Amino acid sequence: MNPVLETIHSRTSLRRYKDTAIRDDDLQTILDATLRAPTAGNMMLYSILTIKDQAVKITLSKTCDNQPFIARAPLVLVFLADYQRWFDYYRLSDVEDLREPDVGDLLLAIDDALIAAQTAVLAAESLGIGTCYIGDIMENYEAHRELLGLPDYVFPAAMLTLGYYPDNYEPKFRNRYDQEYIVHNEKYRHLNDAELKAMFASLEKEFSPNNKFGAKNMGQFTYARKTGSEFAREMSRSIRAALENWQGRQAEKQ
Predict the structure, then answer these.
(1) Which domains are assigned to the chain?
(2) What is the pairing mode between strands 46-51 and 129-133?
């Protein structure tokens, strides 16, 4: 296995870090690699916030679903879907009939931001720096917008915590679902009931009937813990609030 594949297969989410600041040269190496990430039309529709301020990290640990390890991470990177920069450039260039950025622009910018984030993850891993994705940065849009100074056409698409692996750290790898259920040939294949049971068989072995949600099976438990949870509802509310900037202004002009 070549070094790139070794890096991909050895990565796990890291939530416990050595009490050591990220070296400046390592951070620069990560950023240099990140800026080489694929991007739509070479527009680089993203910005990256580097956050070392402890007070800001503490705030993020609370606003991102109360996860204390965020505050303990030596470095946090926030990846922003950013159409503001191009919109400002278009206005500077006196573009005629300039339209406000819309939801299509937002989704394209989110693509760019996530591709950049994953590039940063692999670059960091290759340097012995672990990472953890924090999707909860999409929650509490108003609070995060104020905290991070985000203009109208910038949306926090993803956040990473970074830190060196602790001494004698032993990674714990979680199973992924079998390829036959994830990879489809030519067209989408809707899984039947038997295939769904087979796909989630190993997950269902972890089910405990004595759970705090009163769930009767793993599907009910996962829904209560994830999809139907308060944080999932808040994430959807937050994204709807952000969309008012991207969609509402276009609707007003139509």
Answers:
(1) 3-170 (3.40.109.10)
(2) unpaired
